[in-house]
Specification:
45% of the residues lie in helices and 11% in strands. With 854 residues, the chain is an alpha+beta fold. Helix 17 (506-533) runs antiparallel to helix 23 and helix 21 (591-603) packs antiparallel against helix 22.
């Protein structure tokens, strides 16, 4: 065995790394270049099995984190294009100095271009670049002209895509100065690879990248004169490719995510709609196109923006980063003239040159591209919604579709001749093969510009020499920069003061509230069906089935199956009903549907959910999706129910341990306890009248009432409280009045009141005080509930073994009406929650001062 291992160690994992172009890792003699020598040595010391295992761990970690371009769906993407590779890109000190200096030079020059274009337009007057190239740009928004941007820094945070044409000759492929993407992947790539392959980092002092998000936050804070400005990240609210990025950055910086509908402009000030009313916003980190910010300033662009936002920005009442209009710097047609732009604004020679780019509006350039079509890749001049509106259509997922649109609208397209990238190793199927890679480098401007010491490498798809850089890449790489190059270049800033606590937005509160409700509903249904399945319906006699039928009807009613409650006789087989209410994704109240709804609610507020919670919920989702495809049996459904109860308990335990117990946690708890109270009453109002109607003598076993207690999850609590067999009045007393039984309505309402009471005060008025008064009134209703009161004798009105006459107050009809009335009063709390915390209709109508408007 030892000899076999030694043979494996001698196999060179780079034996498949060969041919086709310059290598960034090995020189002509096959020796590793200096920046890569330690990496190559470590990898060659590993066996093929070890390398395969590490790559599998990388893939698992990437998928577990959701590190991919994907929409919010019910399951993970089966094809994850964002696989992280074992082999990093390593840059030497001199090479990095060249790149970082060139990045800052280009960022400053193109910022000056944006400022000039929106003011004097000297670059056009002096004919440095063609007029139509700039003025026809879909990202150029004339209504923004004349607005003074502090220090002329339109793009304070941006990135550039670079390609190594060989021997360290780095060229710029694209600018990303409007809304740069990918910072979260840089930070996660480093964290994951260092955990899976720590030996790589033991031989080299690699510059850290984790602090870059802190620098970004400090830059945002510096945009306001306030010591603790209110900063938020503005997103479109649409699930899409950037969602993971936005949630990750917001969570790392500790800021809120907002949509346009979460904001309001009053008297040229921007306010966030929170659970405490309107709170002023000082800085907005935008992740949407400039044209989508304000439908008044930019008409016919996007009706879902925030009216008045640009005017508030124009008057200096809110800072927006990156500044509206910064997208003009991303015009790919400018790349042909980037040397001129740098020379015009910086009076310097370009450090990083652009790849060869042709603007198809020019007849000569268009003809040249047409004659050498195979050497070029077509791109729109902007990745901008307005460009596709002008073209009248979007390209399908094919090069032919893009070429057809480019022929019709040549003014809005460019062609690039991208050099074949220097080859980097890509680990796949046990060995390293050669793939070209493209480097994205990030910067932050200000008094002391910062370049992220590293970046993100995206590798080419095999067989596509000039394929456009899209999400269909062949993997990501970590990027190394020597720590010695950057250790003294970090900006020196005084420590920030302790941040002020800001309220969560009403949208976030509502999403957490509904997530709590859906998860509690799923747990209730799973636990109740587990109890019923253990009764073995298929083995019951017909008389027994009639006895337990009310319980099954109660569960069905609680999950919205009203047709089941109308049936007088039980079905021969309840398996189809059980399967539907557990696994049918189209059944709105099924366990699977509830988990899906809860997942979607939490995905929309991912910035406030701990990664541990998301991991548990992903496991639950995958489990249910897999179970839905398997053959169904009673034993299988019982096992599924037990597993779901256990997993949902794990989720709640994880949430309690990893989420801050602030307003976000309290609204999640509000949803849980409200749903638990409503669910208990939904079962009681259906089951109790049927039980009362069928109950004629005391059964020594009290099987039906005992099953009801099991169904409600409080059989053990009943035994400890009463130490007797089950009686109706005592069950009512326990389920309605018990203060220490988690399933009782009293317990749920008290916890609901506590959660609302933890919200801080706003002036002299407590948030939700009216709602608290309403809850206290309901607690008194529970205390006076007639069915939970002992009758004149101490034994109880059912202890004698017979029911009162049907006309008495405890008839089945009276029982049904009493529970239905109580359920209606509890359900009315939802409307009060909605009015006070989510829509603000009630509070705003009565006290506009709570919104800071008076």
């Amino acid at each position: 065995m030892r000899k076999l291992d030694e043979v494996r160690l001698k196999v060179d994992p780079f034996r498949g790394f060969h041919g086709g172009g310059a290598s960034a890792v090995f020189d002509a003699e096959g020796s590793a270049r200096a920046p890569y020598a330690p990496i190559v040595d470590v990898i060659r010391s590993c066996s093929p099995g070890d390398l395969n295992q590490r790559q599998q761990r990388l893939d698992f970690a990437v998928e577990e984190l959701g590190l991919q371009f994907s929409d919010v769906t019910s399951s993970r993407s089966s094809a994850n294009p964002w696989g992280l590779d074992l082999f990093p890109l390593s840059l030497g000190a001199e090479e990095w100095q060249l790149i970082s200096t060139g990045v800052v030079q280009r960022a400053l020059a193109f910022n000056a271009y944006a400022q000039d274009l929106y003011s004097q337009q000297n670059i056009l007057r002096q004919r440095v670049i063609p007029h139509d190239l700039a003025l026809r740009d879909p990202a150029f928004l004339r209504p923004l002209s004349g607005i003074e941007v502090p220090y002329g820094e339109y793009s304070q945070f941006g990135a550039f895509d670079l390609v190594d044409a060989g021997e360290g000759d780095w060229r710029v492929v694209e600018n990303h100065m409007g809304t740069p993407f990918g910072l979260s992947h840089v930070l996660q790539n480093r964290r994951i690879l260092s955990q899976v392959f720590p030996e790589l980092y033991e031989r080299v002092d690699v510059a850290p990248v984790a602090g870059f998000s802190t620098y970004l936050l400090e830059m945002l804070r510096a945009q306001s004169a306030r010591a603790n400005p209110h900063i938020l990240l503005l997103t479109s609210g649409q699930p899409g490719q950037a969602y993971f990025e936005e949630a990750f950055i917001a969570r790392h910086m500790g800021i809120s995510i907002a949509q346009s509908s979460d904001l309001l402009v009053r008297e040229s000030r921007v306010f966030l709609k929170t659970i405490r009313g309107l709170e002023p916003v000082d800085v907005i980190y935008r992740r949407v196109e400039s044209s989508a910010l304000d439908p008044i300033a930019v008409p016919n662009a996007n009706v879902f923006g925030l009216p008045g936002l640009i005017n508030a920005w124009r008057q200096g009442n809110v800072a927006i980063v990156n500044a509206p209009g910064a997208g003009v710097t991303d015009n790919r047609a400018l790349l042909r003239y980037s040397d001129r732009i740098i020379g015009h604004y910086r009076n310097e020679s370009p450090i990083l040159r652009s790849v060869e780019t042709f603007h198809l509006s020019d007849v000569d350039q268009r003809e040249y591209v047409s004659e050498h079509r195979e050497d070029f890749v077509l791109k729109p001049m902007q990745d901008h919604d307005m460009l596709w509106q002008i073209c009248g259509e979007r390209p399908q997922n094919s090069a032919a579709s893009l070429a057809r649109i480019a022929r019709k609208h040549a003014d809005y397209f460019v062609a690039q001749s991208i050099p074949e990238p220097a080859k980097l190793p890509r680990f796949k199927e046990g060995e390293f093969s050669a793939r070209g890679g493209y480097l994205r480098v990030y910067y932050i401007l200000g008094k002391e510009p910062i370049v992220l010491p590293g970046g993100m490498v995206r590798q080419k798809v095999s067989g596509h020499r000039t394929r456009r850089l899209t999400i269909a890449t062949d993997g990501l790489k970590d990027v190394w920069v020597p720590d010695s190059v950057v250790q003294d270049s970090a900006p020196k800033r005084p420590p920030a003061q302790m941040g002020e606590r800001f309220s969560i937005s009403s949208r976030v509160a509502e999403s957490l509230y509904w997530a709590g409700r859906y998860l509690e509903r799923a747990e209730n249904t799973a636990r109740q069906f587990y109890t019923l399945e253990r009764l073995r319906w298929d083995q019951m006699a017909h008389a027994e089935q009639r006895t337990y039928w009310p319980l099954l009807q109660a569960v069905a009613a609680a999950t919205g199956q009203s047709d089941v409650t109308k049936r007088k006789r039980p079905p021969r087989d309840t398996l189809p009903l059980s399967k539907s209410l557990l696994l049918d994704a189209n059944e709105g109240a099924s366990v699977r549907a509830c988990i899906s709804y809860a997942r979607n609610s939490l995905e929309r507020v991912r910035e406030v959910i701990s990664p541990e919670c998301r991991e548990v919920l992903e496991d639950i989702t995958l489990y249910l999706n897999a179970e839905a495809k398997r053959p169904v049996s009673r034993a299988r459904l019982a096992e599924l129910c037990a597993h779901m109860v256990s997993e949902l308990a794990r989720f709640n335990g994880t949430a309690e341990r990893t989420m801050p117990h602030d307003d976000t946690w309290q609204f999640y708890r509000v949803g849980i306890f409200f749903e638990r109270a409503v669910g208990a009453l939904a079962v009681l109002k259906v089951a109790m009248p049927r039980v009362v109607e069928a109950y004629h003598e005391v059964d020594e076993e009290s099987a039906d009432l005992t099953a009801l207690l099991r169904l409600l999850g409080c059989l053990d609590a009943y035994r400890r409280e009463f130490r007797s067999r089950a009686y109706v009045d005592r069950i009512c007393s326990l389920m309605l009045q018990a203060k220490h039984v988690p399933s009782s309505v009293n317990f749920c309402l008290r916890n609901l009141d506590y959660a609302i009471g933890t919200l801080s005060y706003n002036g002299a008025r407590a948030l939700g005080s009216d709602l608290s008064d309403q809850i206290h009134g309901l607690l008194q209703v529970l205390a006076d509930f007639p069915l939970a009161q002992s009758p004149m004798d101490e034994v109880g009105w059912l202890d004698a073994g017979e029911l009162p006459p049907k006309s008495a107050q405890h008839s089945a009809e009276f029982v049904g009406e009493a529970f239905a009335g109580l359920a209606e009063q509890v359900e009315a709390l939802h409307e009060r929650l909605e009015d006070i915390f989510f829509s603000h209709q009630d509070v705003f109508a009565r006290e506009p001062t709570l919104f800071g408007l008076e």
